[in-house]
Specification:
By secondary structure, this protein is mostly helical. The chain has one domain. Helix content is 50%, strand content 8%. It is built from eight helices and four strands, in the order H-H-H-E-E-H-H-H-H-E-E-H. The strands form two sheets. The chain has a two-stranded antiparallel ribbon. A two-stranded antiparallel ribbon has the order 3-4. Helix 1 runs parallel beside helix 6, helix 3 packs across helix 4 and helix 5 packs antiparallel against helix 6.
Length: 208
Amino acid sequence: MKDTRNPLITSIYPDALTLTLLAGVGLRIWHLFSVGFSVPFNLGGLFYQMSVEIINHHFSLPVWIPYYFKGGLPFAYPPLPLYIQALLIKGFHPKGFLTENLLPPLFSILSLFFFYFLARKVFSEKWRVLAAVLIFSSLPAAFTEQIRYPGIDSLRVCLVVGKRKAALVEVDLSGCGIRSLYSQQPGFNLRKHPYQPSLPVHHALFLD
């Protein structure tokens, strides 16, 4: 990626990008300093119990989740992320609510770094890349839902695919779906493919 038209941007780009990414990471893990791992964050206790019930049922799909409401809560949630968490709990026996509190921000941080590579594919100017990463790093809609709720089932990872065409692929484990949200292919219009989680990426990439 070359940008010789603005020497100032070129000179400050590495430091500015590093600070931007670090700020984005900080926003995504800030709550862990107050919450820790001894108690679940937000609704994490419910989803942690779902994974525990999966283990108790020998990895067969439970019908009810006890302790929530009279008679239990129907197991009507996408099971894949809960099975992933159950495997981690069963295999590593983490203390407290480590998996429930730590995995969501980790996935959000992963999407942040993948977004950087996506921005490099989309833009040739360094200042545009920096601006896009800054927006995606700080935009609340890009991470608040991922860290407030069980982030495993809201995993949204940005993948840069192809050498000539940049595309954004959302890997949504909650529905086992893969959606193409952005592409440089002629005729592709994100507005014709509305999908709520794509909006932060839409804004950060200036796709108007």
